Amino acid sequence: MSETTAGATDKKILVIDDEQPTLNMFRLLLSAYGYEAITAVNGAEGVQAFERERPNIVLTDIKMPVMDGIEALRRIKELDPHAEVVVITGHGEVELAIRALNLDATDFINKPVQRQALSQALARAEERIAISRTRGRDIAVAEEQEAAVLRLRGGVTAHSEPFLVRAMAQARALAKPVIVLDFDESASINGAGLDLLTRLLREARDNGETVRIRGLSENFRKVFEVLGIALLVESWPGGDPA
C-alpha cells in the first residue's frame, strides 16, 4: 500500500500502546497512509474507545499495564467478531502471537515496528475487509501443469471448514502429483483455522499425498514452524510446484 493510494481520511484505526512516543509515531505514519488514529494507553481505555468509535482495524501492543493486549483483544472480539485486530509483539514472542491468534487476532507484527511491516499489515487488513464485504468464501481451486492449487484469500477460520474440505476434494479429483496451498498476501489464519489446516494436512500426509505451501507470510511461517505444521508439508517454506 502506497502513501498516495491509501484510503480516505475518514478511515479510523485504534492504536493501543502504553508508550507515548510509540503512539506519536503511529499517528504520523497512519496519517501519511490516510487514516485517523484513535489512541489509548492501555487495554481498558482501548476497549472503551473501540466501543465508542467502532473502527474496522485495531493495532494493539500485548504487554501493557491495567489491561494487557490479550484481554483487550478478547473483549474487542466479543464486541465485534469481524474487527481486524493486529497485535504487536516483541522479538521472538511467537508463543504470545499464537495465543493471540487463538483468540481470533487476524495478524501480528513485531517490535520495533518497521514501516514496511506496518504497511503490509494494513494492506492485508484492508484486503480482508474488502473480501468480507463482497463474498462469503475465500477459497478457489485452480489447475497448474503439475499441481492442483488451492488459492486462499482473506481469513482461514472455523467457518472456512466446509469450503476448504470441498476444495481439497476438488483438488484431489484433478489427480495431480502435488497439492499446493497458495496463500494470498491478504491471508490470515486464526487459532481455529490453524487447527483446521493441521487436521487437513495430517489427513493428506496419511493418504500419502504431497502438499506444498506457497505465498505464506514470514510471520505465519514462524507460527507453522512452532506448531509443527511445517513438518506436515513436503517442502518448506514452499515455492513453485516441481
Fold and architecture overview:
By secondary structure, this protein is an alpha/beta fold. It has two domains: 11-132, Rossmann fold (3-Layer(aba) Sandwich); 139-232, Transcription Regulator spoIIAA (2-Layer Sandwich). 43% of the residues lie in helices and 21% in strands. The protein is built from eight helices and eleven strands. It has helices at residues 20-32, 43-53, 69-79, 94-102, 115-134, 161-173, 191-206, 218-227, and strands spanning 11-16, 35-40, 57-61, 84-89, 107-110, 139-143, 147-152, 155-156, 178-183, 188-189, 211-214. Strands 2-1-3-4-5 form a five-stranded parallel beta sheet, sandwiched between helices. A four-stranded mixed beta sheet has the order 6-7-9-11, with helices on one face. Helix 2 runs parallel beside helix 3 (69-79). The chain is elongated and about 55 Å long.
How many alpha or pi helices? Answer: 8
Which regions contain 5 or more consecutive residues with pLDDT less than 50?
1-9, 237-242
- For the largest sheet, list the strands in their spatial order: 2-1-3-4-5
Q: What overall geometry do the principal axes of the alpha carbons give? A: elongated
How many strands in all? 11
- Relevant CATH superfamily of the largest domain: Response regulator
Largest sheet: 5 strands, parallel
